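Notebook entry, structure prediction.
Reason for the run: the old model in the group folder had no record of what sequence produced it. Starting over properly, with the input documented here first.
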Amino acid sequence: MRIKRCLALLLGAAAVLVLCSCAANTPDMSIQPAQLTQEESNLAKLLDVGLEPFRIFDFTVSDKVQSIQINTYELVDGQWEVVVGGGGQSFSDPKGRVALSFGKLTEGVRVAFQGETSSGATSYTINPEEDVSAMTCATSSLARSVPVAYEEEVPLVIQVVTTRNEIRSYDVEYFNKPEEYGKLGYEHVYAITVLFSQRPVSELSAGAPPEG
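New structure, fully documented this time:
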């Protein structure tokens, strides 16, 4: 519960700073890693919250946004299959933040959204059929600003979970080239994406694997 409260405080403070810096003109739609201010970093230290488990992203869309959705995939036979998806969140703010908190994805993921008037949080666990507790993992996260288009998924995280000593982890853009990960023979490869939609939550469905 303490971590949840700390995360909410961090997101709230961070989102206020982001939203106060909005320009008068509507900027391009994009998402990128959040740049925490010194004040935010100091707040994390004060609350004794390590930021290593958190992946926090700033996004800018348009006033047409109605919902936001996080989908989680596992690579199966060279193709992405949804393991957690379809649970959209109503969201009507053109600027905000999304935060993911996790270590190894199979041990649990917490997702939080924060905007000027909209916010929400959820958590879930991936349950593989085999015991992966002794396996190592390597994680790639979105590292630069990328464009956002409505109804199109943006990969935020890719994580490899394997018994292999050497792990090659590609940039998250390789979400659209799952065959590259398929060639490496890892036991488990997971991906987390975000999708912004002009449709209400009631019209959203679980994510579909990308073509190609």
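Summary: The first helix runs from residue 2 to 20.
The old model has been moved to the deprecated folder.
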